[in-house]
Amino acid sequence: MCIEIVIDTNVIIASLKSKRGASYKLLNLINSKKFNINVSVPLIYEYEQVIADKIPKLSKNDITDYIDAICKLSNRHNIYYLWRPQLKDPKDEMVLELAIKSKSKYIITYNKIDFKNAKKFGVHVLDAREFLKKIGELK
User: Fold this and answer.
1) How many independent structural domains does the chain possess?
2) CATH at 119
3) Contact indicator for 14, 23 with CB cutoff of 8 Å
4) Is the pTM of this model over 0.85?
5) In sequence order, which ranges of the chain are alpha helices (DSSP H)?
6) What is the Cα–Cα distance from 90 to 105, expressed in whole angstroms?
7) Which pLDDT tens digit goes with each residue over 92-137?
């Protein structure tokens, strides 16, 4: 059985900025069957918008191709915003709600402090390196 996860936007951006980090390695393992990524329409829109803002060297077509690949390899969920407010940052609510809806065990993010209430829903918060260690991809 694969581990269910939700990847926060900051991990996506980190993976596109450097091919040497844990985020890049994590995204390259999407099709490995070690974990399943879960997405929602609002999260995909956020990925797309933030990539366009933070990675200006990527063309609109490159961004569309990247997002399409993520969507193709992910489980898609509808979110109904039933859990709010749980977190300090309203933008992070959709990530937590997706994790709850998808029964994800982990949220992968570099803003772990923003998700301190996730644990009460049984969701653990790790950064990319910690998650890769957990699944045996890093020592």
Assistant:
1) 1
2) 3.40.50.1010
3) yes
4) yes
5) 9-17, 22-28, 41-54, 60-72, 90-101, 128-134
6) 21
7) 788 999 999 999 999 999 999 999 889 999 999 999 999 999 999 9
